[in-house]
Amino acid sequence: MHQEETQQTVVSFIKVLTAERRDPYAWGDMFPSCHPFLEEHHSPINLDHQMIRNESLGPLHLEGFDAIQTGHWTLKNDGHSVILQVGSGMSVSGGGLPDVYHTIQLHFHWGGPATNGSEHTVDRRRYPMEMHIVNMKSIHPNLTAALDDPTGLAVLGFFIDVVYAENLHFGHISQKLSSVAYKGQTTKVKPFPLMSLLPKHNMSQYYRYYGSLTTPPCSRVVVWTLYEVPIYISWSQLAQFTSQIFSTEEDAEQVTPLQNNFRHIHPTFSRIVSVSKDAKLLSGTAGSSLSSAVLLHLLQILLLGCLISEL
Ligand SMILES: [Zn+2]
To answer: Do 13 and 99 lie in a common domain?
Structure first.
């Protein structure tokens, strides 16, 4: 009897947990470290022109990203995202990272059929999707140890924008999505050079800040590198994420599409967001606000001219 009660408690706890995973605002109830009022330095954030350029931030060294690994990778639907678990042999370092980090997986965040779903925003603009390559500091034997280190993880974030042309390299993943439509499903993926997914000519343009995981337990252990130039995919490749992935299991009574799996924006507080040596956005943003100021000034002169001519 006692054992039954315990089992029921565990089942109801899991049900609450599953329901709450869909609502980032409720995560703090189950995971105190997700509560934004108790913990500062959360992710994601909005990137604006308040960033500071750091001339010492050059390109990161992406070891093994050009190679084709042996064996196979695993694509998985965990009910919250689609995750590509890669084999060992890839790592990231340099570019101001405090250590060497081993690449463990990449995953995606997206919106719905008519809404964007990147986690980070640029001048409040949300991109259609965002890809995160998760890397763990090489000195740690496992993720539990890395989550105790303020710089235990290095995540490379890439915005994903949409064009008409198919992205053939992205097809390595999007073509396999139908095999992981439902929560808990996995499929094998033939390894491919990870670099082929990335905007390889613009890898020295990025932003850097210290933040958190964007899913429970929301640990503040992430050195974020957000690349300025997006990855481009086609409308149909985007639709495969927004319309054909479900957060429920295949035999569930009610099927729920997996959509809007991004966490809300958090304040930067006292954090410094750095801009790499080659990043362009800072000057671009300043340029656009400057040009609107110039336009306003010209308009004032014109109006004044009209008024004077009428006098
Ligand atoms: Zn993520």
So the answer is: no
Whether residues 242 and 110 share a domain: the answer is yes
Distances in whole angstroms, Cα of residue 148 to Cα of each of 85, 145, 152, 220: 22, 5, 7, 9
Output the CA 109–ligand 1 centroid distance in Å: 6
- Residue 120 annotated to the active site: no
Q: Are residues 56 and 191 in the same domain?
A: yes
3-state secondary structure 167-202: CCCCHHHHCCHHHHCCCCCEEEECCCCHHHHCCHHH
Query: How many angstroms separate the alpha carbon of residue 157 from the centre of ligand 1?
Result: 8
Q: Are residues 248 and 277 in the same domain?
A: yes
pTM, two decimal places: 0.84
Residue 204: inside a domain, yes or no?
yes
| Euclidean distance between CA atoms 288 and 72, whole angstroms | 46
Q: What is the pLDDT of residue 36?
A: 66
pLDDT at position 290: 39
Q: Rounded to the nearest whole angstrom, what is the distance from the C-alpha of residue 106 to the centroid of ligand 1?
A: 8
CATH of residue 246's domain is: 3.10.200.10
Q: Tell me: do 251 and 115 sit in the same domain.
A: yes
- Which regions of the chain are under pLDDT 50? 1-3, 5-6, 9-20, 283-296, 311
In-domain check, residue 98: yes
- Burial zone of 263 (CB within 10 Å; 0-12 exposed, 13-18 middle, 19+ buried): buried
Express each pLDDT in 45-63 by its tens digit.
Answer: 999 988 999 999 999 999 9
Residue among 2, 42, 72, 80 flagged as catalytic: 80
Backbone φ and ψ for 147, nearest 5 degrees, come out as: -75, -5
84/3 same-domain check = no
CA 281 / ligand 1 centre spacing (Å) = 23
Classify residue 306: in a domain, yes or no: no
Quote the ligand 1 centre to 291 CA distance (angstroms): 35
* Structural domain for 11, as ranges: 1-30
pLDDT digits (tens, 9 = 90+) for 250-273: 999 999 999 999 999 999 988 999
Note the pLDDT of residue 308.
52
Residues 92 and 14 placed together within one structural domain of the fold: no
